[in-house]
Amino acid sequence: MKILVVGSGGREHAIIKKLKESARVSEIFALPGNGGMAKDATLVPIGAKEIDRIVAYAKENAIDYAVVAPDDPLVLGCVDALNAVGIPCFGPEAKAAIIEGSKVFSKNLMKKYGIPTAEYEVFDNPEDALRYLESAPIPTVVKADGLALGKGVIIATTREMAIAAVHDIMEDKVFGASGNRIVIEEFLEGPEVSVLSFTDGKTVVPMVSSMDHKRALDGDEGLNTGGMGTIAPNPYYTDALAAECMERIFLPTVRAMEKEGRTFKGCLYFGLMITKDGPKVIEYNCRFGDPETQVVLPLLESDLLTIMEATTNGTLTEDMVRFSKGAACCVVMASEGYPGKYETGFEITLPDEGLVYVAGAKLADGKLLTAGGRVLGAVSAADTLEKAIEGAYALTEKIHFANAYCRKDIGKRALAAKEVK
Ligand code: AMP
Ligand code: GLY
């Protein structure tokens, strides 16, 4: 089968490498992909948001199945457009991708169906928002309604910060039209757990849980990033919690979407916080997480293409999805300075062995050069978390490029939590 994968990051590289293991896959096209994937896929210079060009390319090249990985094309209706010309896809239609595309939609959905989440108010003008903030409990959380490259959430630890966030988002439009409406919500505390799941719209099968490390510096200090590393499974996510989440969050969400006439097929990502009052939804994503995918897929023992097709066809069953009992760790190697200013264009040397998912790189004259903030993920899977962490850091030692930076403590908190349990 000829498979097309829309997207360009480390997540897409992990999906492509997993799909390559399938005997039924003959060729993979990455639109646009990145230079670091050239060994695994045919790179096609069409951007992930160029829906018309993606559809035309898929038709011309007789693509059998498409995987739309990033949020933007999903929210823009890439799956709808490919389906319209008869190409089956992994991923939700636009009307279901709204679960990530609009925070107002997802909060109202949770309220309507009694799914546990932070208390919230919605505002469509700055005056009402500012009036509300005069007496709102602090800290508080201000969120732009629409997509904002993962930056639309401000945790305001003072009233002044919250007020500034409203001005920035609603008046100065720092996130464009995504800030026409905002959600102001209750600040929650507790460990965070990411649970990606496969769903065909009725059945939901969770993947192994994971933990992201969003801050730039060791000890969870510094600015928020797109993710500096991940581990799986997440030790805070006990079997009892998993059962509770299935009953109170996962199934109710999938059923709610179906009831609303927005049947969700693909990967539904649950960003959870384990509060003292139980698990609550922090966010939904309509896609695989990045860099969670880089630790989840290496632990998947079943055939990814078969599972993906089952989500499309409505034939998903639990026994199709098998994970190994082991653990995995992904250490992101970034360009020094990220998420602020950084230089690119440095040559990357990679070892022959080891699992490396490339995110921000390009090919020039046969050389692989850095081309982004997060350059790649060094990944190791092993029978224990300790060994996986050791393996991932050992791999980073064999990867070289100028101005490379990585956190030194990926998985440290997870190991400590394991000891307490
Ligand atoms: P999001 O973009 O929705 O994933 O939010 C980014 C991060 O902000 C989350 O991973 C949490 O760490 C934090 N966050 C979001 N909402 C809340 C909340 N209500 N209380 C505390 N932290 C939050
Ligand atoms: N790692 C969080 C996300 O993919 O949005």
Model description:
The protein is an alpha+beta fold and 421 residues long. The protein folds into 4 domains: 2-91, Rossmann fold, CATH 3.40.50; 125-180, ATP-grasp fold, A domain (Dna Ligase, domain 1); 192-320, ATP-grasp fold, B domain (D-amino Acid Aminotransferase, Chain A, domain 1), CATH 3.30.470; 327-420, Phosphoribosylglycinamide synthetase, C-terminal domain (Glycinamide Ribonucleotide Synthetase, Chain A, domain 4, Alpha-Beta Complex), CATH 3.90.600. It has helices at 10-20, 51-60, 71-75, 78-84, 94-101, 103-113, 126-133, 159-171, 239-259, 293-296, 304-313, 385-397, 412-420, and strands at 2-7, 27-32, 42-43, 65-68, 89-90, 120-123, 140-144, 153-156, 182-186, 192-199, 204-206, 211-212, 215-217, 221-224, 229-232, 266-275, 278-285, 327-335, 355-358, 361-364, 367-370, 374-382, 404-405. The strands form 6 sheets. Strands 12, 15, 18, 19, 22 and 23 form a 6-stranded antiparallel β-sheet that branches. It has a 5-stranded parallel β-sheet with strand order 3-2-1-4-5, with helices on both faces. Strand 1 (2-7), helix 1 and strand 2 form a beta-alpha-beta unit. Helix 7 (126-133) runs antiparallel to helix 8 (159-171). The longest helix is centred in the middle third of the chain and has 21 residues, at 239-259. The chain starts with a strand and ends with a helix. Adenosine monophosphate binds next to strand 8, strand 9 and strand 17.
TL;DR of this structure?
The chain is of the alpha+beta class and 421 residues long. It is 31% helix and 27% strand.
User: CA-to-CA gap between the ends?
Assistant: 46 Å
Query: Roughly how much helix do the residues carry, as a percent range?
Result: 25-40%
- The overall pLDDT average reads 96
Per the CATH scheme, the topology name of the largest domain is: D-amino Acid Aminotransferase, Chain A, domain 1
Uncertain stretches:
none
